[in-house]
Write the structure tokens for this entry.
Amino acid sequence: MARKDRNTDESYAQDVFDNPPQGPIGVHRGNRSIASRLVPFLIVVVVAAAAGIGTWAAMSGEGSKLFSGGNSASSSTSASASSSASASSSASSSASASDTSSASASASDSASASQSPSQSATQQASSSASANLSTQVRVVNGTRKNGYAAKQAAVLSGAGYTNVVAANPSGNLPSASVVWYQNESDLATAQDVAAKLGISNVSQVTNLSAPVVVVLMN
């Protein structure tokens, strides 16, 4: 049998496709710059950041604070100024009130200081005028203390009384110290004597040995 010829490239007639133009063969893209390759990534990053910030502001409420920040700051400043003005007014009012109170207190103290000595002098003068220091006063010692009547008589003499006599008891004695007076005109003197000797009991008795009699008891 005769052998068949094999199909080879040389067995076909050449056409336009056998001589392609020089250069890259097939569909391709040219080399791109670095900037053109980074732009898409930058856009994605910017969009993602903006979306994240918007979501955070909406959920936390910080967005409204950012927009109202200016008004809040001015309101706070106005409130602070008003508070400072009120505090200053209050401090001034308090200082004025304190000064007025201090002045009133000083005036009252001065008035009291000026009146007290005169009142005391008036009372002492009235007491001295009421008590007759020349009235005879008899001091009787009803205690067991020797010289006690003389000691108390010396107290009255030191107070201005000029006719004071110390004596021993005779007759009935009272249960407590007492100042007796005989006439109504001697009442003021008896009260003054009792005050000088620290005796609280003053009573009127007739038929005394002196206009005023002091009986000293334990």
User: Anything to note?
Assistant: Confidence is low (pLDDT under 50) at residues 70-74, 103-108, 110-127. The first helix runs from residue 34 to 60.
